[in-house]
Write a structure and sequence with these properties.
Elements: H1 5-21, H2 26-41, H3 46-51, H4 64-76, H5 80-88, H6 93-96, H7 104-114, H8 119-127, H9 138-154, E1 159-160, H10 161-176, E2 181-186, H11 188-191, E3 196-197, E4 200-206, H12 217-224, E5 229-235, E6 239-244, E7 249-254, H13 260-268, H14 271-283, E8 287-289, E9 292-295, E10 298-301, H15 305-311, H16 327-332, E11 347-348, H17 362-371, E12 376-379, H18 394-414, E13 419-422, E14 425-427, H19 438-441, E15 447-450, H20 459-471, E16 475-478, H21 496-506, E17 509-513, H22 523-531, E18 536-539, H23 551-560, H24 574-580
Helix pairs in contact: 1-2, 1-5, 1-7, 8-9, 13-15, 20-21
The structure holds 2'-deoxyguanosine-5'-triphosphate and calcium ion (2 copies).
């Protein structure tokens, strides 16, 4: 079986973790992390690319050395450097790094001081009170670690939506090939576009299947015979559950054509939404389940999803809203939001180039944006404080500004319809001041600012730090407002409501970062912003020309947060957008 991109990426991440713990050169560590990111998100498998004779060094962040390592991994499943590093540094230390608040440095200190090699070791050390005695830790740290350990062990593993897509896409292609399969849909949280999914719930209809003496045997045989199936948990005539090699659970149900809409509705959920809809049915004397809407024994609806909603006198409710968070009431009142759609975005307001930690040049990014039909693209490289990303100082930013002006002239001459906006992703320093002086900020079209370090301030200090940054009249947008990385790093503590109120008062905007591991704001955050009158920028935070693909995940999240086109600043034409940046 060929190795998955995900497996390759995991190995590189693991290697990067261990190297970081060893105190290796940060740029070397970052090289493996960047490679992991490239491989993980790549639409074709490395194994296929190699088989086709493709040159892997053409991929972003993959040089000769990494290309060779990938080739060896695909060929033999081995990453010799990782084996070598694991000889020196216990493999389980990289798991410790996954515990919130324990970076490479602290993991190394724990290892050196107390010989802590695993989560279990850490737990014991916390219980015996040994941590507080280590220099630089103290009682407070020990307590924090204890709390985070509790959370860590209790956490069920959910899969990021982007990874679920990578797992689901080939499976769906495979299922389409089963004898007689007609319709196929992935329901559940996947269809509601939740940022993470627990398992995949797939529904199919098939010709011939489910008639009196024709159970869905062929479809089930085909499903359980999928190459990636590691374990068959249960197998029935209409329903089977398996675990895939990657650990993902998949439920497959074969449903009759007459029940397809009811099944879609039921298995899309959420459970709370279903229960609320079923209650509406009961009021009208109907029974609603996954087979249909019934009046007595008579099926009165259920072939399409719309027919289910029709039966309870409601308009169709988009899956992203189905969380029983007021959508039924809104639907009944004719007040469902007209959710923002991907094609309504006219540009992107968060982009990096190879001047800092992006992979592609200014020109390449502009070209890719023009090809997508963007009206504008803001260049927001990092500022100097973020040295690991080669952040720009004042002179370098001025240089970039001149380059953008020049490129804009060319773009205008060529009639490309794209305008580059001059901006920066400015670091918010610990005291809430900004990383570059006002003078140079005056030269920009707008300013994005963000917290990139000192995540451990108290809630009050962090909130004040951010508000102080927004006080600067040059600042327009707060990027990835909570700093969380899904499954990797929790949000820093701060008062989102106060920050949103502060943004509203100051005429600032909040970013919904579309990177599938950020999606920061959350859906609830989007709704809060909308209620408090703060508009959102759905931004790709593109680090390469392919990075614009992520915008759709941002749109998914915005839709879950009830946002309409008007709530999103980058649905506006350029002139109107620029007017919003006048504070
Ligand atoms: P997940 O997988 O944890 O991300 O979340 P879901 O929403 O995909 O949940 P899952 O896979 O347990 O079930 C899929 C859908 O099936 C769920 O959204 C609603 C429906 N469902 C499951 N169990 C029940 C139930 O006990 N009652 C009702 N009304 N619906 C259920
Ligand atoms: Ca599910
Ligand atoms: Ca399920």
């Amino acid at each position: 079986m060929p190795i998955h991109n995900r497996e390759i990426a995991d190995r590189f991440e693991h290697l990067a973790d261990l190297l970081e713990i060893e105190g290796a050169n940060p740029f070397r560590v970052r090289a493996y992390r960047n490679a992991a990111r490239t491989v993980r998100g790549y639409p074709r498998s490395m194994a296929d690319l190699i088989e086709d004779g493709a040159d892997l060094t053409e991929l972003p962040d993959i040089g000769d050395d990494l290309a060779k390592k990938i080739a060896v991994l695909v060929d033999s499943g081995e990453l010799p450097l990782l084996d070598e590093v694991e000889q020196r540094t216990p493999a389980a230390l990289s798991e410790l790094m996954k515990i919130e608040g324990l970076g490479a440095k602290r993991v190394k200190i724990l290892h050196d001081a107390l010989d802590i090699d695993s989560v279990e070791d850490l737990r014991k050390a916390v219980q015996s009170g040994e941590i507080r005695a280590i220099e630089g830790f103290g009682e407070k740290s020990e307590e924090k670690i204890r709390q985070r350990l509790e959370k860590y062990s209790g956490e069920e593993r959910r899969t990021k939506l982007v990874e679920a897509e990578e797992i689901a896409a080939p499976l769906v292609e495979y299922l389409k090939k089963a004898d007689g399969v007609k319709d196929i849909i992935i329901a559940g949280s996947y269809r509601r576009r939740k940022e993470t999914v627990g398992d995949l719930d797939i529904l199919v209809t098939a010709t011939g299947a489910l008639s009196a003496n024709s159970p869905a045997t062929a479809v089930m045989d085909h499903f359980t015979g999928y190459d990636e199936v590691e374990e068959i948990v249960s197998r029935g005539d209409t329903r089977s559950t398996v675990y895939l090699r990657c650990g993902m659970q998949v439920d497959l149900r074969v449903v009759a054509q007459v029940s397809y809409g009811a099944a879609q509705h039921y298995f899309t959920g959420s459970r709370d939404h279903n229960i609320a809809v079923r209650k509406l049915g009961i009021k009208k004397g109907y029974k609603i389940n996954e087979y249909g809407v019934f009046e007595g024994d008579k099926r009165i609806a259920g072939k399409t999803e719309k027919s289910v909603y029709d039966a309870v006198d409601l308009p169709f409710i988009p899956p992203e809203l189905r969380e029983n968070r007021g959508e039924l009431e809104a639907a009944r009142a004719g007040k469902l939001p007209r959710l923002v759609q991907p094609d309504q975005l006219r540009g992107n307001l968060h982009t990096h180039t190879d001047a800092t930690d992006g992979h592609d040049s200014l020109k390449a990014m502009a070209k890719a944006a023009a090809e997508r039909g963007f009206e504008y693209l803001a260049i927001t490289d990092h500022s100097r404080h973020l040295s690991v990303a080669h952040g720009l100082d004042e002179q370098q930013l001025l240089q970039q500004i001149r380059a953008i002006d020049k490129l804009n002239e060319t773009l205008e001459k060529n009639g490309d319809g794209l305008r580059l906006l001059k901006s920066i992703e400015l670091d918010i320093l610990e005291d809430g001041t900004l990383d570059l002086p006002d003078g140079v900020l005056d030269e920009l079209d707008f300013v994005l600012c963000a917290v990139h370090y000192k995540f451990d301030l108290s809630r009050q200090k962090q909130t004040e730090r951010i508000l102080r940054a927004l006080d600067n009249r040059h600042v327009n947008i707060l990027a990835h407002p909570s700093g969380r990385l899904i499954n990797q790093r929790e949000a820093y503590e701060f008062d989102l409501e106060r920050v949103l109120e502060g943004a509203a008062e100051r005429g600032c905007f909040i970013e919904l970062n579309a990177q599938p591991d950020r999606l920061d704001l959350t859906d609830a955050g989007c709704r809060m912003a909308k209620e408090l009158g703060v508009k959102i920028s759905i931004a790709a935070d593109a680090h390469s020309t392919r990075g614009f693909d992520y915008l759709r995940f941002g749109v998914d999240q915005a839709r879950r947060g009830w946002l309409e086109a008007d709530d999103v600043i980058n649905t506006r034409p350029l002139k109107k957008l620029l007017a919003l940046f006048e504070r």
